[in-house]
Every structure is written in structure tokens, then in C-alpha cells.
Design goal:
Blueprint lengths: L1 E5 L6 H13 L4 E4 L10 H8 L4 E2 L3 H7 L7 H14 L5 H11 L4 E4 L2 E4 L19 H8 L5 E4 L6 E4 L4 E2 L7 E3 L5 E4 L13 E7 L2 E7 L3 H9 L6 H9 L2
Parallel strand pairs: 1-2, 2-3, 5-6, 6-10
Antiparallel strand pairs: 1-11, 4-5, 7-8, 7-10, 9-12, 11-12
Helix pairs in contact: 3-4, 7-8
């Protein structure tokens, strides 16, 4: 079994194309997505179209915001969600009807073969963030790990890394981007395709091959994405600026 697991595309089609090309170059046919296909970025429809070809996807908080009400978002994120919703809501367009139905049917989590796939956390699939500094919040991690059977894959924070059940956090650089998983409970943040926030502007995703987990970083033409964002008044320029810095 060789599977690519990615998350937080956020309407960034340039990043997604680059990641898919890297996936194909590695001979991987199976792709799982952990949500936030849309939001922030300038190409939500195109990203949804590609996500519809993936093997499995789960619901992210930005999909929920576009489908229903964008509660709890910053003003800039809410404007981006409202704009994203408008791109998807032309019901006279058959493609848009298919996109909307696809998003409406996304599950909040997937559990199979000892693995859990979810956007935020197993405790709160859409909204709970698990940051590296949460290793100091012992009670929080104990509750989260209490809901994990084997390995749980998450996104949402846009910061890649691994949490172990003994309360440690490891960034990918600490194990040279590749690590062997054991039978202990493990929480894996796969990072972000379309809006990295770990001071590395390259897209991030992981490859799971049996017990081997590899983090991948992929360059993409972020200036093209930035120019598109600048050209859309409803999208804050900051959403483009941060792509240049990866934070």
C-alpha cells in the first residue's frame, strides 16, 4: 500500500498541480485528502474538480463554511468564504451542481485499517487545532489520544509534524523527513498543500507506504497564485503575501 495524504489545498491550483505531479512521479495512485479544498485561494472550482478524482476526502471547516454559515472565522477568511460560495453556487452550471453535491456528501472522518483521517482532530473533526506547543497541554493530548486507535492523520494547522503518545512532538526535519511508524498511537499532521505556515513556502504532503511515512516538500509557482489573489477584490492581499513567506 502506497498512499499520498494531503490537506489544506485552499483553492491554490498551482500548488495542487505541483503536488499531484510529485505524487505521480513517486508512482502513487491512491490519494486521500483531509479537507479545506477551498477557502483563501483563487481557484476553488478547479481544486474541487481535482479533489473529486481522489480516492477519499473528508470535510474541512472551510467547506462547511461555504456550504452553511462561516462562523468563527476572521473577517478576511469570511470574505474569502463568501466569495468561494458565490463561485460554487451557479446552479445553472451542471459542473457546479456536481461540485456542490460532492462537498455536501463529504464525511467528517474516515476510519479504516487502524487509521483515522480527519481535518482538525478526532475530538472535534472540523474545528480543533492541535499545535506543536500542545505538548505542554498534557490534558488536551491525553483526551485526543484517548480517541485514537492507531495512527490518526490531521491537517488544519498547516504545520507538519508528528505527536507521539508519550507526549512528544517531532518536526519532519528532526527525522530527516522519513520515519518508521510502530504500533503505538501516533498523530500525524500532514501540513498544507496550498498555504504552508511553518516558514517554508513549499507545499507539503505525506506518503504512507506500509509503516514508512515520508514528508514531501514541493516547489510551485506561488507568484502566479499571488497575482490571482491580488486581482480579486474580495480576497485580502495578505492571503497572497503569506504564500511568499510560508507563514
Amino acid at each position: 500500500m502506497k498512499r499520498a495524504i494531503l490537506s489544506d489545498i485552499h483553492g491554490n491550483i498551482e500548488a495542487l498541480h505541483a503536488v499531484i505531479a510529485d505524487i505521480r512521479q513517486n508512482g502513487i495512485e491512491e490519494i486521500y485528502c483531509l479537507g479545506d479544498i477551498v477557502g483563501y485561494g483563487p481557484n476553488p472550482c478547479e481544486c474541487v474538480d481535482l479533489a473529486m478524482t481522489f480516492d477519499r476526502c473528508v470535510l474541512g471547516n472551510h467547506e462547511q463554511g461555504a456550504l452553511y454559515d462561516p462562523e468563527g472565522f476572521s473577517s478576511g477568511a469570511e470574505r474569502a468564504i463568501q466569495w468561494t460560495r458565490a463561485q460554487l453556487q451557479d446552479e445553472s452550471d451542471e459542473q457546479n451542481r456536481q461540485r456542490w453535491e460532492f462537498l455536501c456528501e463529504l464525511p467528517r472522518n474516515i476510519r479504516e485499517n487502524g487509521h483515522t483521517y480527519v481535518h482538525g482532530s478526532p475530538r472535534s473533526p472540523l474545528h480543533e487545532y492541535i499545535f506543536p506547543e500542545d505538548v505542554y497541554n498534557t490534558r488536551k493530548l491525553e483526551k485526543v489520544f484517548g480517541l485514537i486507535q492507531g495512527t490518526c492523520f490531521i491537517g488544519h494547522t498547516h504545520v507538519p509534524g508528528i505527536f507521539t503518545d508519550d507526549g512528544k512532538y517531532l518536526s519532519p526535519s528532526e527525522f530527516d523527513m522519513k520515519i518508521e511508524l510502530d504500533d503505538k498511537k501516533t498523530l500525524v499532521n500532514v501540513g498544507s498543500v496550498g498555504q504552508p505556515r511553518d516558514n517554508d513556502k513549499r507545499s507539503c504532503y505525506v506518503i504512507l507506504s506500509d509503516k514508512t511515512l515520508e514528508f514531501r516538500r514541493v516547489d510551485y509557482p506561488f507568484d502566479e497564485t499571488i497575482e490571482k489573489i491580488y486581482a480579486i477584490p474580495q480576497l485580502d492581499n495578505f492571503l497572497g503575501d503569506r504564500l511568499r513567506e510560508g507563514r
